Amino acid sequence: MINPAAVFVVTTENVPGYRVVSVLGEVFGVSSRSRNRVATQGAGLVMVSGGELDSFTDLVAECRYEALERMRLAAAERGANAVLALRFDTENMGDSGGAAIAYGTAVVLSRQPDA
User: Fold this and answer.
1) What is the pLDDT of residues 15-66, one digit of tens each?
2) Cα–Cα distance for residue pair 25/79, rounded to 1 Å
3) Structural domain containing residue 94
4) Is residue 62 packed enough to be buried (19+ CB in 10 Å), middle (13-18) or exposed (0-12)?
């Protein structure tokens, strides 16, 4: 299996200097996090006075990062060395938390010889 950390991930449909050798299909990673009740109450105060909701920002960032890593693992398990057309989707689960999904197309890329 390929090291998941070595799976190249891009938002584009191709990578200059590389060609797609095989398409292995859609891969995704999902993460969900619950909100800390104290942080949620503190965020209520910030919403009244204005400003960034740091605890919610951290929650979204952690969800996205974990979803991305899980997608890389899914791609590596299929034998892919890259994921093309990365997309993210997020979901607010009311007062209880949030979720993120990272998805794209798992492929095997090969470097093209210099022209």
Assistant:
1) 999 999 999 999 999 999 886 554 555 455 545 566 776 777 788 889 999 9
2) 11
3) 4-111
4) middle
Overall residue count recorded for the chain in this entry: 115
Number of structural domains, the chain? Answer: 1
Measured CA to CA in angstroms, residue 63 lies from 2, 18, 35, 90 at distances of 23, 30, 12, 9
| Cβ(42)–Cβ(55) below 8 Å | yes
**Could you tell me the pTM of the whole model?**
0.81
Q: Which residue has the tokens 């997309």?
A: 87
CA distances from 22 to 8, 44, 68, 76, 105 (A): 15, 49, 21, 14, 11
Tokens found for residue 10 = 């891009």
Whichever domain contains 32, its CATH number is 3.30.110.70
